[in-house]
Predict the 3D structure of the following.
Amino acid sequence: MVVVMRGNASETDIEKLIRAVRDAGGDAFVSRGRNQTVIGLAGDVARISELPLHAFPGVDDVLHVNRPYKLVSAEAQPEPSTVMVGETPIGRQGVTLIAGPCAVETAEQTLAACEMARDAGAAILRGGAYKPRTSPYAFQGLGQAGLDILHDTARRIGLPFVTEVITPADVETVAAKADMLQVGARNMQNFQLLKEVGMSGRPVLLKRGLTATIDEWVMAAEYIAHTGNLQIVLVERGIRTYEPMTRNTLDVSAVPVAQSLTHLPVIIDPSHSGGKRDLVLPLVRAGIAVGADGVIVDVHPNPDEALCDGPQALVRDDLDELRLTVSRFAEASGRHVVRAGARTAVHSA
Amino acid sequence: MVVVMRGNASETDIEKLIRAVRDAGGDAFVSRGRNQTVIGLAGDVARISELPLHAFPGVDDVLHVNRPYKLVSAEAQPEPSTVMVGETPIGRQGVTLIAGPCAVETAEQTLAACEMARDAGAAILRGGAYKPRTSPYAFQGLGQAGLDILHDTARRIGLPFVTEVITPADVETVAAKADMLQVGARNMQNFQLLKEVGMSGRPVLLKRGLTATIDEWVMAAEYIAHTGNLQIVLVERGIRTYEPMTRNTLDVSAVPVAQSLTHLPVIIDPSHSGGKRDLVLPLVRAGIAVGADGVIVDVHPNPDEALCDGPQALVRDDLDELRLTVSRFAEASGRHVVRAGARTAVHSA
Amino acid sequence: MVVVMRGNASETDIEKLIRAVRDAGGDAFVSRGRNQTVIGLAGDVARISELPLHAFPGVDDVLHVNRPYKLVSAEAQPEPSTVMVGETPIGRQGVTLIAGPCAVETAEQTLAACEMARDAGAAILRGGAYKPRTSPYAFQGLGQAGLDILHDTARRIGLPFVTEVITPADVETVAAKADMLQVGARNMQNFQLLKEVGMSGRPVLLKRGLTATIDEWVMAAEYIAHTGNLQIVLVERGIRTYEPMTRNTLDVSAVPVAQSLTHLPVIIDPSHSGGKRDLVLPLVRAGIAVGADGVIVDVHPNPDEALCDGPQALVRDDLDELRLTVSRFAEASGRHVVRAGARTAVHSA
Amino acid sequence: MVVVMRGNASETDIEKLIRAVRDAGGDAFVSRGRNQTVIGLAGDVARISELPLHAFPGVDDVLHVNRPYKLVSAEAQPEPSTVMVGETPIGRQGVTLIAGPCAVETAEQTLAACEMARDAGAAILRGGAYKPRTSPYAFQGLGQAGLDILHDTARRIGLPFVTEVITPADVETVAAKADMLQVGARNMQNFQLLKEVGMSGRPVLLKRGLTATIDEWVMAAEYIAHTGNLQIVLVERGIRTYEPMTRNTLDVSAVPVAQSLTHLPVIIDPSHSGGKRDLVLPLVRAGIAVGADGVIVDVHPNPDEALCDGPQALVRDDLDELRLTVSRFAEASGRHVVRAGARTAVHSA
């Protein structure tokens, strides 16, 4: 951190600040310029960050030049992590496809969608049982019954699955069945939920908030890591901007940026960001090309009848192209497509 | 709602859509133009909104021309609501000042801050015991102990108090002591929390999410209302924009817009939006002038030592100006300043 | 400015950077911390800013702690400026109302609108002859003929007027007739236009770009000032955000922030930001309350027939309330309403 | 367009609106619902759009369901355009690389950078002679001298070149030398400049404004097209968002969206959006993968000494990877890399 003092700050102001930093176990290095004095701070950033430095007399500005995360940072672990979901890895060496229905509606629709996902090359299934909905009048998901359908379907198909958990009280129930827990964009700063999913011991898929900075997203991962659980995958799913033609703006730059800040895998969600079926495949291509470690997409056997987010689900006719797209762009990126249960990844043909 | 069909939509497409709307209890009115057909939908918007209209064949776009909220809408109750917090009203006839420390740190600091608040004319106290913090390493609030301090201090001063609740499991505990529950910006779409605070029976202060549209904010209020609790106050606290000089951008236009859409009181939070002490009083003036039904501000007896958000808290020297400012701008707006416990409001001198 | 070096930066890297700064006439002060070295730079910020510091070996980040503007900065002239438009002042001591039609359509409509403006207390008239329009098919303004109508109308009414100029080639023509030149939001970074309006010698009304930071807006003013013309008034007119219910988001915080950074007057435009008639008066109140030095509003004798921006123009029935609003909120702010031609301002009754 | 009437609109209101639309040569189709009446409008959208429909009595909202552009729309010309720059095509069948120095500084640096560009596979050169700079104190480009250097260098290398023109008065001079004119992001709505570059007869590279919607960007192209010049290439170069870690957010979704709305080629600029060298190659990959018709990048022989935007320029060591990247991702997309002067494109090896 760097503290910039006002031009009229006194020596007493400067000494007071240095003393406070040293009391907090840090160190301070003063650089006196012609018009202004700048003080570099060193030591435990997290602890020093708690000092109300902005409120000290004579302080003009406080600049954060170190990142406040520890456990998930690339400094803490220079080697990228691989997160195991059941027997399927997500990590920087391969590209993992996760697919399935947005919401579990019936056992039949879930089975059909998960078979579609498997046929398209998915190595992990996804599906929503507990749905966070902006309207209290909208379909809220099947809850426990949906979770059971997902579990049975995934076991039948032989793939692990990830599903969202939306409130701390449900974590135990969901963790008992699901192979991976998803924290949705709206809950990215639901800190109690972050702690509970961390303590569940399950791997966690953490979506970026609609309007979260990359720093805040990584700090949310740090909350999970702080419970001792480092099995975290970051998901870029589009941010809110002023552009009305797409539901959200997929921030592809966030993928390499987050990969340089942390050792965690970073994947993209092209279904929820674009909000339109026509955009899904182009964004899958862009996501893999920019270096994402995986992709999570919605598929639906009959999107006309979808109770949730039908317009963006891929349909049967898209599956061949999805499989080929993932394979071709993984290859162009010098990576393989991860197969289900393949700890030793196999290169796509 | 209005459905715009593609130029090449067939009669079968149009009929299929109309049938689906009628099956959902709605009605559809077709307007055939030269190049395009437009279908107006009537009936229960919430129910029709659940149809995956975007995914119907031939559909180009779906436009929402009715608001999907019911219980909190101005149509449901044309007369503006007054929300009672203890004996203090918040509503469109007066201007209510809520003040207190951002976080409860010690009993002494809390008492000092609450006395400052009372002296500045506050009719409701505020203070944080459970704090949502972006970093797991930051001060997380005193929790239950802080709640007890707040409760004792408020009873001693003789004013009701509002405090934030950050997770569903804490609602019962907090509601047992606090006069009003606050849902913070990061939890605006924590739907389980919205339901729980609704069911607590306490009045609720609902902050707008950092990046929530006005529609989403009002829908979050509808979640609370859906539990049967209409004692809701909306708080505009600044939205996230690209401007780096202020922490957030106080969206003053949101005040009259939300007041026209709902019957709920709408207040502003100038402390958290500006993020700087110098901006607090100008934003208090702007908020009252634009028509806010109240203002919520941070005060601190010694902001150098604040464990949280010190830079934006008002200090003792600001209190006279705060009291005068509220009084003058309420008067210029043709409103009175609400006194504590004054069901019958008294005009400010 | 502060340069933060990477942890692995060498002494040679540090020396190379210091030498470059000193060659540019600046000075550098090194602060060596445990993990990182921070270098404070002093001297001519504008000149040092041109060094490609980010590209120097070992540099991690470059932080701007001084503002790069000179002539318009509050440091350059601590006393706020008063800009004279004809005989009417705009400055921090009073509140100046500017009003008139969005676009000049006919001599009759212009006269009627300007009479409305005068009756509402306007001390300066506004009207558009050259209109920047997003569509080449939209009404582009009457150009020279519109300018003549405005000029004749203003002289007849006895008030000065401001009008927009949209391209450098028109500056001379417009400056020959108008008392003040307006640079619109879309042209805020049309640097050639900024230079030309500066050299015209006329006072300039500089609107903030739809998505300009406050820093960029003040730098645009510096471009004008750089020609020797310091008669500049800044106009906050709403910024682009994700919120769809208002055309733009009036950033009231920008008023006190810009007033603290510069000595220039800062006014607000509530008509173009809200985009709806119902929002104009609330935003006039908020703007004056937050401390704006004036307000610029659209009025129209018959907005149904307006060729441009009819929905937001105030109509005859609004005028009394406009006059009273300006007067009451100026008074609550301890300021007077500026009267036409009143160098010595008179307090509003 | 669709006009939504208020619940309390009268028959007279409805008739008045219909009459106005018919007077403007359009047609109106009324759909009366239970609570609201919706009126679909047909005919010349551009002309009807000029009616102040929002201001008509009884009107609640006006929804634009047709796009207002004509000449550049995909409806006007379903076959995608190919724009010729000298002998080099830009269009949907290939991927065209444009590269060169951000700014022309000296003849030597320009030659070195352009040779680097050619070696990396560029089929068109780029370079800045007239630079729009936010600060009046920053390097403003060499102007005419820079243009001459660029012209001589490009002729020597044997490739066409594109350069920016920043004000209408310079268009003739620049068009006399350059093979293609660039309109920068800050000038996207400098309508006079759009007209002048259109009338120059040269092909035009039109950058998206920092905060322009896709609709506004395409409307800016329509301004150029309106002069009779359809040789327009759209450039997505990143939009302004709240995220501070990247200079701008490259909106890759805008590429397929703009390609579906218009027949114009759409390319991406990864240098200016990311603002960091490390992001350039990942964004080149993402841009080609999402379907861009080309890429424009900055290269510099010695970025430490760059007078402008050094941190983001690719250096010699990046060139092999740039060439391979373009080639591999074009191939994965089923496209070829466009060679200089190759009207008949040749597949990359």
